[in-house]
Automatic annotation (TrEMBL):
SUPFAM superfamilies: Family A G protein-coupled receptor-like (SSF81321). Putative odorant or sperm cell receptor. It is found in: Cell membrane; Membrane. This is Olfactory receptor.
Amino acid sequence: MKHSNSSLEFLPTMFILVGIPDLEAEHIWLSIPFCLMYIIIFLGNGTILHVIRTDAALHQPMYLFLAMLALAEVGVSASTLPTVLGIFLFGTNEISFDACLLQMFSIHSFSIMESAVLLAMSVDRFVAIYSPLRYTAILTLPRILGTGVIIGLKSIMLMAPLPMLLRRLPFCGHNALSHSYCLHPNLIHLPCEDISINNIYGLFIVTSTFGLDSLLIVISYGCILHTVLHIATGQGRKKALNTCGSHICAVLTYYVPMIGLSLVHRFGHHGSPLLHAMMASAYLFFSPLVNPIVYSIKTKEIRHGIARILSEKRTRV
């Protein structure tokens, strides 16, 4: 361990992760649903990415943004996989300090990307409903790719200072975390000096990303609703709203668990550790697990693409 001036302060070489509190004896059995969950996440999002990549008819703004969403969700899940399966399958509950910071950076960066892509998708739906004839002229391929690059760079640049801010803080013998992965709201409670700068910057990230994104999504849907109400026919209004159904589900599956986890971290200090673990798992895994299923069921073009791939495989066999 790297000691600071005080013998009580140190920079830990390792952090201790936990699986599901009070169920440690059942971890080998709990690994089964977690393995199935990862398989569904990677298979579902991977299938959507493959369908969009191979079907030229799906090289449209809506589906390109969906591909970005799938990539972000794969990134979040891949970031958690080594420690989660390490704990449940092999009982490995230690992670090095640097690896923990890298995992924290990856999880939060991909999560910020996911939020920004959901905002881009809400703007896409507004343009499609408000000006359908100019839809592809407004959302051109260079603009979509540029949006993706900006989202990625913004996420990385916002998150880059957090590991450095944590590195400058001394720890006082506390190196046990509350989850199977490293999250900033959990890590920030371990240092024994003033964490005001970390809290202020963390709050800035939350408000400038998740807070602003969610506000703009609500505004986008207010504009969508206003536009839909001016459509003359009931059938036209229903068709317009149906195009937003999958995206609304994606927004809810992303933001509801996030709000729940934030409330638990802020006000649930004396709550059950099991509640913390379940809310963190819902925040990280619910959206990547559900979204591929929702889009596969509700989006006709994705269904047809999946059916085409399956039929081609049957033909080869």
